[in-house]
Design the sequence.
């Protein structure tokens, strides 16, 4: 079958030679060995901003790795829509009761508290029915983990039967369902805040958990009390951090220190986990008469690359893979980038996810050794930070990510 992406002209200037994971001296051999001889679940957690929140990039990585190593389950789903923001399209999570309080990562007021997913909801009354449905074949589940406010353990019933709770930590509890399902209605009794739900099957294989929040920076996740401690409950072997675009729109003085604090906090709580940082794609900002290149993105890219080299952290340099300088205009032309000059279209995110999945698989299967290479020479194109670029008409009708101005 020919994929949709093969039927659409791709952006010019893609640097395929740079599409690789550079380990910077880190040793992933033990992790890769465990993946090759998988016995149980191999969990990847993808953390990011509004590029990650729709779940499209993570979904493509999930599809590629599960095809190779087995489907361990859909993984983490979040009450994003219940909290008033956009969520991935491959699941539906609704409630019979209204939401009495909710929180989003960048909201000034957080009446429902905050958890590892960056969102939280509380329901009116002491009981509600949660309806969970997955939309993709193979995402059936029989066991779930609820992530909730500290100490607020919920009573969970399925068809009137109380499900036995197996505490994982103060903020996570496991439940086994009565049967396999791709759609369930669960009675939730309790007044605490719900952060997310992890859907699991009984098979060995890969899980890709997605934690994305509009407008997020490294500092945003550092502001979640106990973020890394809660992250440990997901049992990650690999954590991918895709942040940096929003940092480019603010002060750059604390970018490296915030990256370092986030990475070290995760490694402290999950000492055997491997970390992969990614660099952001070039974007545009509004200038006097049109759009100009947001030069801060290239600076953030360099900060991430230098940090990873200095601290022996693996990196995927998407800035260079996408085409480096001038890439934003070239992604706009075939409608891989939205006309806000900031976010990608659905097919743009699918393409990005395909590239990341390909780079990971090449490393995992031994086609690439992850060694450092001299910086790739990226062709210089006409657009630079002092030149204006033309808007390219109206949006192409794909899903628009909710976003504050100049933030993602």
Sequence:
């Amino acid at each position: 079958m020919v994929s949709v992406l093969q039927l659409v002209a791709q952006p010019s200037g893609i640097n395929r030679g740079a599409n690789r994971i550079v380990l910077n001296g880190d040793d992933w051999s033990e992790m890769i060995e465990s993946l090759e001889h998988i016995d149980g679940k191999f969990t990847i957690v993808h953390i990011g901003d509004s590029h990650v929140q729709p779940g499209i990039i993570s979904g493509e990585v999930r599809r590629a790795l599960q095809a190779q190593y087995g489907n361990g389950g859909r993984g983490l789903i979040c009450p994003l829509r219940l909290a008033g923001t956009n969520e991935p399209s491959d699941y539906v999570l609704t409630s019979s009761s209204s939401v009495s309080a909710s929180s989003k990562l960048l909201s000034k007021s957080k009446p429902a508290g905050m958890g590892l997913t960056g969102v939280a909801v509380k329901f009116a009354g002491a009981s509600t029915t949660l309806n969970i449905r997955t939309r993709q074949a193979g995402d059936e589940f029989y066991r779930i983990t609820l992530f909730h406010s500290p100490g607020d353990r919920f009573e969970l019933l399925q068809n009137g039967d109380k499900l036995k709770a197996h505490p994982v930590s103060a903020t996570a509890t496991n439940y086994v369902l009565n049967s396999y399902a791709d759609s369930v209605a669960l009675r939730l009794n309790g007044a605490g805040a719900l952060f997310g739900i992890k859907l699991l099957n009984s098979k060995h294989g890969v899980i890709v958990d997605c934690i994305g929040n509009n407008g997020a920076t490294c500092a945003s996740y550092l502001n979640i009390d106990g973020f890394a401690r809660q992250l440990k409950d997901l049992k990650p072997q690999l954590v991918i951090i895709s942040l940096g675009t929003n940092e480019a729109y603010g002060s750059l003085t604390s970018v490296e220190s915030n990256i370092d604090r986030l990475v070290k906090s995760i490694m402290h709580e999950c000492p055997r986990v491997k970390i992969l940082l990614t660099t952001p794609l070039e974007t545009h900002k509004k200038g006097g008469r049109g759009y100009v290149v947001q030069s801060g993105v290239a600076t953030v890219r360099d900060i991430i690359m230098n940090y990873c080299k200095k601290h022996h952290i693996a990196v995927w340099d998407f800035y260079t893979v996408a085409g480096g300088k001038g890439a934003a205009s070239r992604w706009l032309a075939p409608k891989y980038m939205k006309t806000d000059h900031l976010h990608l279209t659905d097919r743009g995110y699918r393409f990005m996810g395909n590239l990341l999945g390909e780079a990971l698989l090449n490393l995992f299967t031994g086609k690439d050794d992850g060694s450092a290479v001299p910086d790739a020479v990226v062709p210089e194109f006409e657009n630079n930070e002092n030149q204006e670029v033309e808007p390219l008409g109206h949006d192409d009708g794909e899903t628009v990510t909710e976003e504050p101005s100049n933030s993602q």
In short: The CA atoms of residues 215 and 342 lie 12 Å apart.
